[in-house]
Design goal:
The chain is mostly beta strands. The chain is built from 3 helices and 38 strands.
Length: about 350
């Protein structure tokens, strides 16, 4: 359904509806709160925010502030996302399957990975990557990729950084470009924007808040490939071609490039123009590539810029295959839910843009 001034998309998952202690103070365009999520009072939700509680639950406290294009998600059947009171999350950040204590400030372009525990009153500086299962000490500043403790901070500095993050508000607006045609054999979220020449293979999915703009080129997405929440693919005079059975994680940024079959591009990664990712490649969360870089098959690549870290072992290959299975299942479920919510989805899409 649509609620809160017709800006926020809410859908159940496994029969569970999102719960709000009170209507948010603000909702930007193209945002959604889905499934087993609970939000406290006085929330401020920027544009193209995705809070998606499908394979586990999300619990968020009072006075939560989250900026444009940020994502909160879970780890399927493994870890929920739990966020305390008075937490601020900046723009284009991902809080994934972790626990965040009260009074924290997470700046722009931050990724926090699974099973991490962030203590109370922590500041995570812009561009940081918190590796999985990290423990961040209360009252501290963390920065870097991977994020490490820099120093202690006092409450006045924390409040100043919070105000700085929140000062810009929300700036996303609806695109005037037309929506690309999406075959019935695929899933495209109602809050995703697809424009230009886009070809989507059977069983593929484009999740919530994604922005796919083919420009003068093409975007080609292979069968059973999933493009996760708030990923942006933007072609500048060329094509972006993505193979089958491939995953692009949350908040990935992709230019004109080629990505092979059975690859996984980790959360928050950035692939520069003319990047070539060969088949059977795992790209770590927060990694970046240089223009024209080739990531060779059979390796785990990570870093800024990305470098080959280790050959793919059986455990990583199994994880990559399971991600495809999970997202094909998510896509089937959300496609049905969208159809139930608004006939063939067109009426609901129109309402979202009001």
């Amino acid at each position: 359904m649509l609620s809160f001034a017709r800006r926020l998309l809410t859908l159940p998952f496994d029969g569970v509806e999102a719960r709000f202690a009170a209507p948010p103070l603000f909702c930007g365009i193209r945002s959604c709160v889905l499934g087993k999520a609970e939000l406290g009072a006085d929330a401020w939700i920027g544009g193209s925010v995705c809070i998606r509680a499908d394979g586990h639950f999300i619990r968020i406290g009072d006075r939560f502030w989250i900026g444009d294009r940020s994502t909160v998600h879970i780890a399927h059947d493994l870890h929920p996302a739990i966020v305390g009171n008075r937490v601020t999350v900046g723009r284009n950040s991902v809080v994934h399957a972790c626990t965040v204590g009260e009074d924290c400030v997470i700046e722009d372009d931050v990724v926090i990975l699974d099973a991490s525990v962030v203590g109370e009153g922590v500041l995570i500086e812009a561009g940081s990557l918190v590796l999985g299962a990290s423990e961040l000490s209360a009252g501290s500043v963390y920065a870097g990729a991977p994020a490490t403790r820099v120093r202690s901070l006092d409450r006045s500095e924390l409040d100043e950084r919070r105000a700085r993050v929140q000062r810009l508000g929300s700036h996303l607006a609806w695109s005037s470009s037309s929506q690309a045609s999406v075959p019935d054999t695929t899933f495209a979220a109602l809050t995703a924007e697809l424009s230009g020449q886009i070809e989507i293979g059977a069983g593929a999915s484009v999740f919530f808040g994604c922005d796919l703009s083919a420009g003068g080129g093409r975007i080609v997405i292979g069968e059973n490939t999933n493009i996760q929440d708030n990923t942006v693919i933007s072609c500048s005079g060329g094509d972006a071609v993505i193979g089958r059975d491939t995953t692009l994680g949350h908040n990935v940024r992709v230019g004109t490039c080629r990505i092979g079959h059975r690859a996984l591009i980790g959360i928050g990664a950035v692939l520069a123009d003319a990047t070539v990712v060969e088949e059977d490649v795992l790209v770590g969360a927060g990694a970046t590539t240089s223009p024209g870089q080739t990531l060779e098959s059979g390796w785990f690549w990570a870093g800024r810029p990305a470098r080959a870290i280790a050959p793919l072992d059986e455990r990583k290959r199994l994880m990559m295959a399971r991600t495809i299975e999970q997202y094909c299942g998510y896509a089937r479920s959300f496609r049905v839910l969208q159809l139930r919510a608004g006939a063939n989805g067109r009426a609901l899409q129109s309402s979202l843009s009001d």
